[in-house]
Amino acid sequence: MVSDIHDTDPESSPLAQRLETIISAYYRNRRRPGYKEMTKEIEQATGRSFSSTYLWELATGRKQNVTGEHLHTLAEFFGVTRDYFTDPEVSEKVRRQMEFAVALGNGKVRTLAARADGLSDTHLEAILAVVNAMSDAPTHDDQSSKSHEEPGRSTRA
Fold it and tell me: Residue 20: enclosing H or E segment and its boundaries?
């Protein structure tokens, strides 16, 4: 049987499943690169080296002995906490957040949701207040569409 090189075995380690989930989510809206190209992106973004073979072994469940430094590098690159890879509750929470963001169809929303994981209630409330204020404010597009209307006429209902 031929399988996709990105597939993990359903019986593979929780780490492999979580890594595969975050990789798939990260590259959802663009072509997913091979592990060699992916590790180049990781190195460019984090300044730390990462073997493409080691990443492949982790993602496919062939290796499970990830170092703390590698967890930190992966967490930084994918915009999650290290706990995403080690704590089932955290990874499930992030997975649900990613599913919700995917449903919204915006990669920036996915990044925001993943990065917000682990913030205190106070910080989450502050972010929510900013988002609410921004969603109530007129956007640049709203202003430019008004400038094209005839005086005294509105295209809005």
Answer: helix 14-26
pLDDT tens track for 59-71: 999 998 899 999 9
Q: Is residue 35 part of a domain?
A: yes
Q: Which amino acid is at 93?
A: K
Burial group, residue 26, by CB count within 10 angstroms (0-12, 13-18, 19+): buried
81 in a structural domain: yes
Say how far apart CA 121 and CA 98 lie, in whole Å: 19
Residue 122 sits in a domain whose CATH number is: 1.10.260.40
Residue 6 forms part of a structural domain: no
**Rounded distance, CA 39 to CA 143, Å?**
43
Number of structural domains in the chain = 1
- pTM beyond 0.85: the answer is no
